[in-house]
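Example record used in the benchmark description.
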Amino acid sequence: MLIKLLLSLPNKILIWLSRKEQITTKGGRKLDPGFQFLLSFMGSEDSEAIDHSLPAAEQRKQAEEAVKPLLALSAPLPNGIDYIDHQVPSDGASVRVREYFNNNLEKNAPALIYFHGGGWVFFNIESHHTFTGSLSDILKAKVFSVDYRLAPENPYPAALNDFDAVFDWVESNYEELGIDPKRISVGGDSAGGNLSAAISIRRQAENKTLPKAQLLIYPVTDLTFSFESIEELAKGFLLSKENMYWFREQYLEDHNTVKDPLISPLFSEDLSGQPSAVVVTAGFDVLRDEGDAYADLLKKFNVETYHHSFDGYIHGFVGMEMVSGVNEAIVKFCKDFKKIY
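Model output (structure tokens):
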């Protein structure tokens, strides 16, 4: 409660409480005071919360501990939003899918299949519970949040196969689920944004039903890590360069596939006919430049694309609604998503 109260203080005081001058990066971007204070509170500027020398299972526990302070600040689900869990078969496994809905939704509601972030290794539907519930409320849609299989125990393409299986399940059960089978969209943040772009590419190549639209929130699109932002913002802004290299090691068994468009969508030679997209990027995010580049590539191939860049924000901001301005940012890009879904 104290942190929430502090976050409501004027910007100058938040900067003072962070014990630093306001951080400015190349291009004149200034870190939002709320995020500067929050990073200071979490200790993210000076040390890495995750010890990559430990087994992945132990690191997951560390990651969960690291985000507990944020989750403790999260608001409850919006009024009227409820949820139910399903089990969906995929590759001989069973994947949990959480359906968020408002009982006032009419039949034939639009649907969004959502894949959480976490580098294909960390987190689950619980870590994104507030955000996915909020998406259901804002979009007036059913949201299906997927507890997909994680690397390194289940490396590429396990998560992508889970996405395909869940999409087919939602489409096949549209009547029982009360959704419009022609309005099934996909979305995700970070690694989930990567998987959303990749599944759209894969389903097109396999002549399967395409998503109606794609919501790509600070997506990973280039696992060669060739862009300037990964060096410029290598440490101190929640997601680090070191994190990304470690995530890649866990996700890929064969590094010769790093330029495969289903792994690095930015290497697609032709995105013609891809679903309309909303691409969201953050100015203080190692993934900023590759997300910007993917939005530009979609536009190059005449895909209807709305690109929202929040220059003062950090990676993971959609889960930090306690920072002033974040809710408004989410509503802003959702407004454009409503145009295409």
